[in-house]
Amino acid sequence: MEYLLGIDLGTSGTKTVLFDAAGTPRAAQTANYPLRQPENGWAEQDPADWWDAVCTTVRGVLRQSGASPAEIRGIGLSGQMHGLVMLDAAGDVLRPAILWCDGRTGRQCDEIVAAVGRETLLAVTANPALPGFTAGKILWVREHEPAVYAACRHILLPKDYIRYRLTGEFATEASDASGTNLLDVPRRRWSETMLSALQIDAALLPRVEESAAVTGKVHKAAAEATGLAVGTPVVGGAGDNAAAAVGVGVVRPGKAFTTLGTSGVIFAHTDEVTIDPQGRVHTFCAAVPGCWTVMSCTLAAGLSLQWFRNRFCAAEQAEAEAAGVDVYDRMIAAAAQSPIGANRLLFLPYLMGERSPLLDADARGGWIGLSNIHTKADLTRAVLEGVAYSQRQCLDVFREMGVDVADMAVCGGGGRSPLWRQMLADLYGCPVQTLASEQGPALGAAILAGVGAGVYADVAEGCAAAVQVGQVQQPDAQNAAAYEPFYRLYCRLYPALRESFHTLAGL
Predict the structure, then answer these.
(1) pLDDT per residue over 417-444, tens digit each?
(2) Is the model's pLDDT at 170 over the cut of 80?
(3) Which of 165, 226, 370, 398 is 20 to 30 A from 392, alpha carbon to alpha carbon?
(4) Given pLDDT bands bounded at 50, 70 and 90, which one contains residue 241?
């Protein structure tokens, strides 16, 4: 039997899945780790936790499946984007990794724009300078932790740290590197313009490969730690969303997917470089060679519902645990009893500031219209709808850019909810489908590994072999008409509150 291994390094945990060549998951293991917020708006993790999770989950899937390590043809990596990992000359981690949802680098982003100019920045990197991206984090460390920066010899993205631990190689690939503000996205290589303007030594950065290229092989120490076979190929892999695109078959124009995980993402394939002149959404290199993607990212999608559960649903959690059911299922079942519009209640899901399409780290969340009539079910439904409205707002930007979407897949924890999927179908105005396998980024990483190992001729062939469609939700015209006035009001709320958010941030 031939197997492919997909390792997905997420924000809340690492999921490792062993697949056969038909895309059937044979074993899956997840290991979680903490996210630390030493100050408001900051977000950090210890890369050692990631490696421990990889070792635990790889050994777990080998044990669970009974597969021989020698039967694994290739390994693909997927991971949270934009994080900053800094290593010294010995390859040791110098400080906790600064994550994608960290908002501390607003001033450094202004410095990047001043150094290169907004037009050049968009033309070269295809994206504005955002607090979530990697370049601002590098400048922040250089300014605030000069001793750390002086000792730094290697800068890696999160999944590429795992590559280093597996193979000893310092490499990345074009999709993940696109989220650094340092890549020439049209040319798929590090930008001399950006590095020169920001005075960042190119020697600190890993080499850039394509997603299906073999970047190294598992070495002896990694084999002993994980149970893998020495010499197993490790391919470039992809940033989590680019890998998810492959894992749901979004590898040609007109196809897109929505992820409702910690963050909310819409990801659409395009054969050409298409850039939003306002920088509201991102253009990245695709995992498919010679292609690109347009991507939005809202920072608190599933995180909004998780926050609500943790703060206000202790009784529901206890009841669900006693009954052996998922507390989210209970919460969403209650929300379904609230009508469209949640009895005239709107929720702004800006708990971590917001990226797409607002580009405002000072934006904050809240309910608008709260009154004595509202129940917990109304509050829950408003959270679900607020996240759905934020995704629709991003899709409207795609359509302004001429990137039309007629076929939308959905993945992530939130995608398991029929109610949430129906909200998206109604607001998007197109069918929304799940996949037979809910392995998304891990499956995409495994398909890329299969291409690199010669199991598939190319990415399209891998998707045809391994990606199977699940349930389809058709848009309901009556529901769509009912949502529209609430959506239009939602779009007016941030502009009305923007000045107040900024004033509050300064108090």
Answers:
(1) 999 999 999 999 999 999 877 778 999 9
(2) yes
(3) 370
(4) confident
Measured CA to CA, the distance from residue 430 to residue 425 in angstroms comes to: 6
DSSP structural state of residue 414? G
pLDDT of residue 469: 84
Q: Where are the extended beta strands (E) located within 273-414?
A: 282-285, 292-298, 346-348, 366-368, 407-411
| C-alpha of 303 from chain center | 13
Confidence of residue 411 (pLDDT cuts 50, 70, 90): confident
DSSP-based three-state secondary structure for 278: coil
For residue 258, the model assigns a pLDDT of: 93
Do 360 and 505 meet the contact criterion of CB atoms below 8 Å apart? no
**Per the structure, how many domains does the chain have?**
2
Closest CA to 156 of 229, 70, 72, 215: 215
Q: Does one domain contain both 410 and 462? A: no
> Do 127 and 216 belong together in one domain?
yes
**Contact of 17 with 25, CB cutoff 8 Å:** yes
User: Are residues 164 and 182 located together in one domain of the fold?
Assistant: yes
Residue 285, strand partner residues? 292
279 confidence band (pLDDT: 50, 70, 90): confident
Cα separation of 305 and 383, whole Å?
7
Q: Tell me the whole-structure pTM to 2 decimals.
A: 0.82
Of the candidates 160, 176, 240, 426, the residue annotated as catalytic is 240
Q: How far apart are CA 108 and CA 259, in angstroms?
A: 29
Domain holding 58, by residue range, is 3-248+439-470
Query: Do residues 79 and 227 share a domain?
Result: yes
Asked if 374 and 315 sit in the same domain, the reply is yes
Tell me: do 482 and 343 sit in the same domain. yes
Is the same domain home to 90 and 208?
A: yes
240 noted as active-site residue:
yes
Q: What is the CATH number of the domain that holds 497?
A: 3.30.420.40
Instruction: Return all residues near 363 (Cβ < 8 A) that are at least 6 apart.
Output: 348, 350, 353, 354, 494, 498, 501
* pLDDT for the residue numbered 292: 95
- 97-106 pLDDT, tens per residue? 999 999 999 9
Do 21 and 114 fall into the same domain? yes
Omega of the bond leading into 47 within 30 degrees of 0 (cis): no
Amino acid at 375: T
- Asked if residue 253 is part of any domain, the answer here is no
Bigger pLDDT: 146 vs 436? 146
Q: Is 499 helix (H, G, I), strand (E, B) or coil?
A: helix
Average pLDDT over residues 111-115: 98
Half-sphere exposure of 319 (CA within 13 A, CB side): 10
Contact of 179 with 239, CB cutoff 8 Å: yes
Residue 243 lies in a domain: yes
Given a contact cutoff of 8 angstroms between Cβ atoms, the answer to whether 470 and 434 are in contact is: yes
